[in-house]
Structure formats: structure tokens, C-alpha cells
# Entry
Amino acid sequence: MNKSGLEYDVYIFDLDGTLTESEPGIINSVQYALEKMNAPVSDRQLLRPFVGPPLVYSFVNTLHMTEDEAMRTVRFFQERYRRAGYLENSVYTGIPNMLRKLKALGAHLAVATAKPKEFAEKVLAAFGLDGYFDIVAAPMDEDEAKSKERLVRKVLAVESGRAVMVGDRDLDILAAKACGIDAIGALYGYGTREELESAGPVAICETVGELTKLLTGSDEVMPGAFISLEGCDGCGKSTQGKMLAQWLETRGYEVVRTREPGGCDVAERVREILLSPDTKGMTGICEAYLFAAARSQHVREVIKPAVERGAVVVCDRFVHSSIAYQGAGRGLGIDAVREINAIAVDGCLPDVAIWLDVDPALALERRFANNNPDRIERENAGFMNVVREGYAKIAAMDGTLTRVDASGEPEEVFQRVVGALKGIL
Ligand code: TYD
# Structure
């Protein structure tokens, strides 16, 4: 064991089938290439063994092509993969947390993949993994792609200390052994248990959780993150929330999508009282306490436990809604509403609160598309302007709220939302 309690100093990961679930993009692109070669294969199951090992090798050995045919097929593959295939990919859930933990313990991390360097780097960047690795060993030409051992040696040439290789195929394990280092099999990838066992790894892990425990030596998890989405009614929160959750999931995060008021049984019941158009004569102060009451349950039952187990919580509205709607909108004052919520939130505040800011007139138009407005949505445009001013005040005051321009197409707005996340993941 080294000084931070880790068994190894250098952790070398295979990419496809170990860090990322790359099957869809690879199989779609292999199918495209085979069609171009007039040798279509429609059964995707038959093409599964193509994920991971060098493609030339698979075309020659599995489909009995000549080297020359295999090279031509690879070029068709690359044409589609470069355009679309590399994005038809996702990171296995739990991988970012595992890498984060290893990094925090001082490990050096590397990738050794048969994927051409250009693609390996594109995939790592597109899925937010690029920042973790000290070196990415990937082939610069088709010749280099044929030998995983050469790629592992590239890592070992620059990284010193005790190294281990983690991979999902026998070729990964055999390459590590040829280099004289230990290897661990990732059974959640594309290889079978028999395949991995026959290559002789020091261990086989069935899940990312098991692998994390083995590599880091403990069950302890690093806390996840808490993101809230804020804004006037009709600002596009739900659309952005959905897009954000999906984006995070493809990057390997466990996502808990929730909302306020609500998010758990007790709070959903309070929501009914708060939003029912039949609830008449509720004072602003009663409203503020009910929102805070629902929040206190939601924080303890859903948000805190999720963040503690390493998940990313994406919540539609949180305490900033109370400050803007009750503090500004109902005129209770920002400080009073903060105070009412202090015990409710129990120190659990968003790592980033994103205020989707749109012109209330535009939001109003979006709101009219909703045929069944709730009690608060029935407020007039003047109320919404005051709420917006409330958000603007908080954003200017203390940096706990990040303004994002929410005008334009959902995809454009989403790019801004992602920009506002910088640093928290
Ligand atoms: P929401 O569920 O976001 O409505 P929709 O799904 O239609 O966008 O929120 C319900 C309403 O409750 C909304 O008008 C904002 C209001 N609200 C407050 O006034 N204070 C609060 O603390 C919260 C969480 C919401």
C-alpha cells in the first residue's frame, strides 16, 4: 500500500466497456461500414464482440476479411463515427465518482485504449472525463491500434510506481500481464466471465460500485451535488430540468430529479393546499411557512440523503423561489423569508442555483399555453414583474443565484445552463 492507503500508484483504464458504454455508437457505425462494403449484418447481437478490441482485428478474425478489406471497412466506420457515433455513448453510472475519489487519494490516472487518439480524446471531452487523466495512450495510426501492450507500455514509460490495468476484455488483461502489471476485469462491460477468467486477472468486478470499493479500499462515497432551477412561471424550468438530468446521466451521474413544492409524500400534500385554486384567503406569511414546511420534509427525506450517497439532485425550485415569490412578490421581505427557511433547509443549500431569466411577457405567453393555471400562476403580470425583481436582487446581492438568459431555443438556453455549472462537477 502507498502512503494514501492505495494499493497502486497508477490506475490505467480501458475506455470502451470500462469507462463508457460505447456499444450503440460502435455498432451503428460498424453496420454503416458493412453496408458500404455490401456485406450488411442486421443482427446487432452478432456485432457485440466488436466493442473494445481493435476493429481491423475483429473484421479479419470474425468476418474473415482480408487485411485490405478490413482497412477499407474501418475507414467507412470512422467516417460515420466521426460524424455521429462518438456521441452515441454514455459513461457508466458511478465512474465520475470513482475517478474523483481516486484523484482525491493522489492516484495517477491513465487511459489505454485501442480507439484512435482523435476519437478517444473527443469522447473523453464530450462526456466530461478529460480532466481526470494524466495521460491518454491511444493509437496514432492503425498499426499501433493492433497492440494494446504497446499502449500500456506508453503509459508505463511516463508514469512511475506500481500500476494496475482495468479492462473488460481478455486483450486488456493479457496486455497488462505482458507488461508485468496486475489487471482487474470489469465484468459490467462487454467481455464474458469465462473470457476474463481465462486471461488471469487478479480480480473481477461485476459492478462499478464493486470496482470503486476494490480500487479505493473503502465504501465511503464522495458527496454529490445539488442544483436548483429557478425562475418566473413559464421560464422553461421543466424543459431545462429534463435536459440537464439526461445530460448528467449520460455522463455517469446518478440523478435525482425532484421539485418544490413537493418531491415527497408529505410535501406533495402541502403542495395541494398551496396551489389549489380552491384555497382562498391564504396570507403571504402562511404561504411562506407552508412552502418552508414542505421544504423541511423534502430536504431531510430526499435531497440530503441523495447528495450524501453521491447523487446529483436536480430540483425545480428551492429556497430562492420563496425569497422571490414570498419575500419580494408578497412583500414579506428577503431577510424575513430567509429567516423562516433557515431551520427548514438545515444548511442544505444548492451548490448552484440557476435563475432562468426571461421577460415576464414572454413567460406569460408560455403560461397561456397552460390551460389550467394554479393559484399562484393566476396572479397578474405585475406580480410576476416584482418576483423577477426579487430574483434580480438576490442575484446581485450574494452570488448564491446565477442568472442565465432563458430567451431563445431550448438547446441554446441549455448550453448556457451547462456553462453555469462549471466547477461544481
Ligand atoms: P411550479 O411547480 O414550478 O409550477 P409549474 O410546474 O407550473 O412551473 O411552482 C408552483 C408555484 O409555486 C409557482 O407559481 C411558484 C410558486 N412557489 C412559491 O411561490 N414559493 C416557493 O417557495 C416555491 C417552491 C414555489
